[in-house]
Amino acid sequence: MRKDKGKRRWVKSYLRKHFHILGCTVVLSFSLGYFWSMSNDTCQDTPSKIIEALRKIYSRPQILKPLRPDVLVMTPWFVPIVWEGTYNLEILNEQFQQRNITVGLTVFAIKKYVVFLKTFLETAEMYFMVGHKVNYYIFTDRPQEVPKVELKEGRNVVVLQVQNYSRWQEISMRRMEMINHFSQKQFINEVDYLVCVDVDMRFNDLVGVEILSNLFGTLHPGFYGSERRSFTYERRPASQAYVPHDEGDFYYAAAFFGGTVKEVYKLTKKCHEAIMVDKDNGIEAIWQEESHLNKYFVYHKPTKILSPEYLWDDSLGRPQILRKRRFLAVPKDHDAIKNK
Ligand code: GAL
Ligand code: MN
């Protein structure tokens, strides 16, 4: 009898002491269940309860760092952050080959940016989605200046003639509109995934199917180790891209994002519409479409995140954390290129 009471007391005090652990476990199980169901097929808007919980638990995301103490490999909403050593490419290649997927790689070579195409395409042939079918979608106002590059089997260049704009900021932002338009008109019938990148870049190491997921974003090389408050989100409430100081998980780069055609369609639609509302209100977000992309990702959490291995600029040095530099900025003379 006395023993029984003692036991009960012990259980009570145990529960009291470890209440927070139990609470966390329950919350974790629910969110795991939610994200597991999401990762299976479609992505939904992230429920406001989860966004609310996330904004409270950290100023800087830290949840799983099993590789090395400085390498975050899982987000607080349980999706992978892709670094060298976190995946098995052989197994993934087999899975994606069985699905017989085609990947669309979109780039914009407007005005003088056509000068970047040759290196971009040649290095993509060496490193991008090796062994898979690829369509390079080249948006340009100068179709005659698209270089002829020798392509491996199953890979095509598709030139899409589009208009240009006088300001580079406008050219940059209109990418959302153009990707959106062609997603519905063409990409949906031709490819499974879209990868949308900057053209003033070169591939320097493998970028393969490990990046593919319903909706993925890339950590901006300048902010992957920063705290939330130093992210360069749009901070003016008058803009549609506004993100308050206590929200947001990462600062993502507009130079590398993607997902299924359906998800990229949804993302680009929302961003383009927000850009147009800003235009009507006479405001332009601080980092143009990148600000809108970041806003989108606060409320539609990506299902996979790419580490800065996938978007690097050697002017930032070569930190130890980077075991691979897969996709590198090509140095450019801004004045000579940007508005020309
Ligand atoms: C810079 C980059 C810009 C923009 C900005 C965000 O390094 O050149 O394109 O991404 O960071 O703060
Ligand atoms: Mn760029």
UniProtKB/TrEMBL annotation:
Its cofactor is Mn(2+). Mn(2+) binds at residues 198, 200. An alpha-L-fucosyl-(1->2)-beta-D-galactosyl derivative binds at residues 220, 232, 290, 313. It is a single-pass type II membrane protein. UDP-N-acetyl-alpha-D-galactosamine binds at residues 108-110, 113, 198-200. Its main location: membrane. Gene3D superfamilies: Spore Coat Polysaccharide Biosynthesis Protein SpsA, Chain A (3.90.550.10). Belongs to the glycosyltransferase 6 family. This is ABO, alpha 1-3-N-acetylgalactosaminyltransferase and alpha 1-3-galactosyltransferase. GO terms for molecular function: hexosyltransferase activity; metal ion binding. It is found in: Membrane. Binds 1 Mn(2+) ion per subunit. The chain crosses the membrane at residues 21-39. GO terms for cellular component: Golgi apparatus; membrane; vesicle. One of its GO terms (biological process) is carbohydrate metabolic process. The active site is at 290 (nucleophile). InterPro entries: Glyco_trans_6, Nucleotide-diphossugar_trans. Keywords: Glycosyltransferase, Manganese, Membrane, Metal-binding, Signal-anchor, Transferase, Transmembrane, Transmembrane helix.
